[in-house]
Amino acid sequence: MEMISIKSASEIEKMRSAGRLTAQARALAGSMIRPGVTTFEIDRAVRKFIESHGAKPSFLGYGGFPASICASVNEVVIHGIPSHEKLKEGDIVSIDVGAYLNGFHGDCAATFPCGAISQEAQRLIDVTKQSFFEGIQYARVGHRVSDVGHAIQQYVESHGYSVVREFVGHGVGRNMHEAPEVPNFGAAGHGARFQAGMVIAVEPMVCAGDWRVKVLKDKWTTVSADGSLTAHYENTILITGEGEPEILTDPGDGSGF
After folding, report:
1. What is the pLDDT of residue 251?
2. Domain limits, the chain
3. What distances in angstroms separate CA 18 from CA 12, 184, 233, 240, one per listed residue?
4. Please, what CATH class does the domain formed by 9-247 belong to?
5. N or C: which end of the chain has fewer CB within 10 A?
């Protein structure tokens, strides 16, 4: 079983810097989303931004992934490859981004509207984001990893949506994916107990319809099997000794995340 790393005070400081930069990259991507723009253009801008701060895009080349962001539109849940196809009014676009700075990774995601979107699409985005906050209420010393996922699933399903099972959150640090896995579903009271200094990425992936997904021929693009709309929200968080977890992927400019 892979060991869960507990970060030192100096490592946490480096993770704050990586997290802040990653959140700023997510905000940049979100600010560019509008009808007529391509996700390829957004990817190029994000890569330039990350590299201009002396960091590397975590995703570029990771497992062979060809881009610096995952740009997942409408029924695409995660791992959408940026393309030259123009975004359309009413699309919803999930941007997932990571930055590697001073030996540590930040990882975060959010789903953004493209122009005016339907009430149903906005509700899906809102429920997905709020489910993250419902979950991290349990990201505290003494609770177990599955307590977070249980809270996320309860909240999502209470709104008539479903939680993806095949992909989960994870530890973050010197590697982008570390122990423990952090599912967004399941019974409470299982898995590792949270300890101060643990850093995890909590990332609910939510479908408006059924929770099943399929991976397309490019071996990356993951869509809802029934073609329903999907949304994604993620932050890298630190388990503190003081109760509330600290969100490391906060852009630090008061704009929210």
Report:
1. 80
2. 9-247
3. 10, 24, 18, 18
4. alpha beta
5. N
